[in-house]
Specification:
alpha/beta; about 300 residues; single chain; globular
Length: about 300
C-alpha cells in the first residue's frame, strides 16, 4: 500500500509553477538513491566542465537504496543543487510507513525498498526530513523559448513508471496536462529520449544505481540551448563512480558499517549492473524542434 503522501500528491504536477529562465547549459539527473560516491563524482565532473551547482537539477529520489542518505541530503544543502520532490521525499518527510514507490507487493524491489526505507528513516533527523519535504513537486524552466517541466514520474501520478515502451498516447496526454514543450522525468531509472508529436520526453536515468544493461556506470544529461531559437541540445553522459566503494567493509554479519550507519548486504549487490537491458534509446527524427545527440 502507498503512504498518505503519495495519495495526497497524486495530481500535484499539473499545477504550473513560476518558471526559471535559464540559458544553460544545465545538468539533469535522476535519483542519487543515497549514493554519495556517485553524487560527488557528478559534482566533480560539473566543476570540470564549468556548470555550477544551481544549474544542476535532480528529478527526485535523493534517498533510496544505497547507504548514505544523510550524506546525500547534506550535500544538496551545502551546494544548492536543485531537486524536486519524488515519492521518496514525500514519504520520508511525512513519516510514512513505506517509500510509496509503486512496486508490485511481495517482489524483490518491494522487499528491498522496505529495508532501505527503514534505514533512511533512522539516518535522517527531523531537520533533514523537513528539507526534503520543502522542495517543489514540479520545476518549470524556460530555455531558448521552450517550456520544460521537470517532474518525478508523470503528470497525474508521482510514482507512475514511464519507460520508452510506454505508449505515446499516454505521454501525449501528460504533455497536454502540463502544457509544455518538454518533460524531464525520473522515477523509472532507465534513460531514454523520445519525440512525441514534436515535443521531447526525456529521462536522464538514475544517478545512484546503474541501469540493468551490464554497465556499472551511471547516467546524467547535459542540456543547453540549440543554435536556433526554439531548439534544445541534449546529450547523455556517464559517470564512473567506482561502485566498488559500495562493496567495502562487508563483515561476517553481511552488513556494511560507516560510522554509526549500517545497511544490509542485499543493497551491496543492488549496485551491480544486471542483464539484459530493458530500455531503448530513440533519436528524435530530423526536422523536429529538438536536436538530440547520440547517447
Amino acid at each position: 500500500a502507498f503512504g498518505a503522501a503519495s495519495r495526497k500528491n497524486a495530481v500535484m504536477n499539473v499545477r504550473a509553477a513560476e518558471p526559471l529562465i535559464l540559458t544553460g547549459p544545465i545538468i539533469v539527473f535522476g535519483g542519487p538513491y543515497s549514493n554519495l560516491h556517485a553524487l560527488d563524482a557528478l559534482l566533480a565532473e560539473a566543476r570540470r566542465i564549468g556548470i555550477p551547482p544551481d544549474s544542476m537539477i535532480s528529478t527526485g529520489d535523493l534517498v533510496a537504496y544505497c547507504a548514505d542518505a544523510r550524506g546525500v541530503v547534506d550535500r544538496f544543502r551545502e551546494t544548492g543543487m536543485r531537486f524536486i520532490r519524488g515519492n521518496c521525499e514525500d514519504q520520508i518527510a511525512s513519516g510514512a510507513a513505506d517509500c510509496g514507490c509503486g512496486f508490485a507487493p511481495g517482489g524483490e524491489c518491494d522487499r528491498l525498498s522496505a529495508d532501505w526505507f527503514s534505514h533512511a528513516m533512522r539516518e535522517l533527523d527531523e531537520d533533514r526530513r523537513t528539507f526534503l519535504g520543502s522542495a517543489p513537486g514540479r520545476l518549470d524552466i524556460v530555455m531558448n523559448g521552450l517550456r520544460i517541466a521537470v517532474i518525478h514520474g508523470a503528470a497525474t501520478q508521482q510514482n507512475r513508471f514511464v519507460f520508452a515502451s510506454t505508449p505515446a498516447r499516454v505521454k501525449a496526454h501528460d504533455f497536454e496536462l502540463l502544457d509544455v514543450d518538454a518533460i524531464f522525468a525520473g522515477h523509472s531509472g532507465l534513460p531514454f529520449s523520445q519525440s512525441i508529436d514534436g515535443r521531447l520526453w526525456h529521462n536522464p536515468g538514475a544517478l545512484g544505481m546503474p541501469a540493468n544493461e551490464g554497465d556499472p556506470r551511471v547516467w546524467f544529461s547535459i542540456v543547453s540551448a540549440g543554435a536556433e531559437p526554439g531548439a534544445l541540445r541534449q546529450s547523455g553522459a556517464i559517470v564512473d563512480f567506482r561502485h566498488g566503494f559500495l562493496q567495502g567493509g562487508v563483515g561476517s554479519a553481511g552488513a556494511r558499517n560507516e560510522g554509526s550507519r549500517q545497511i544490509d548486504q542485499p543493497f551491496i549487490g543492488s549496485s551491480e549492473p544486471m542483464w539484459p537491458s530493458t530500455f531503448i534509446v530513440v533519436q528524435v527524427p530530423a526536422g523536429t524542434a529538438f536536436q538530440l545527440l547520440a547517447w
